[in-house]
Amino acid sequence: MGHTEKHFKFINSKTGNTLYYHSVKEIENPGQLKAELEKIRDKVAATNGVFMETIYWEEIPDNGEVQ
């Protein structure tokens, strides 16, 4: 049984703090995945009162190891 979700964390680039975790079902189209992650990034930025350009995301590997 394969994994059906990818997990991401949204990070404030100025502080290095993780602001939000989000999981998405695997999306075959990279453009669609990017659009969904950008929408979440914008929401996280607005909620935390920072510029959306300050927030970036990283995929959390399935093995949970930090790289």
Task: Walk me through the structure.
28% of the residues lie in helices and 33% in strands. By secondary structure, the protein is of the alpha+beta class. It has a 3-stranded antiparallel sheet with strand order 2-1-3, covered by helices on one side. The model has no long low-confidence stretch (mean pLDDT 89).
Q: Based on DSSP secondary structure assignment, what is the total number of beta strands?
A: 3
Helices and strands: which structural class? alpha+beta
List the uncertain runs: none
Radius of gyration: 12 Å
Distance between the termini: 25 Å
Keywords:
single chain, 67 residues, alpha+beta, three-stranded antiparallel β-sheet, 1 helix, 3 strands, globular
Could you give a quick summary of the protein structure above?
The protein has one helix at 30-48; strands at residues 5-12, 18-25, 55-60.
Topology:
Layout: E1 5-12, E2 18-25, H1 30-48, E3 55-60
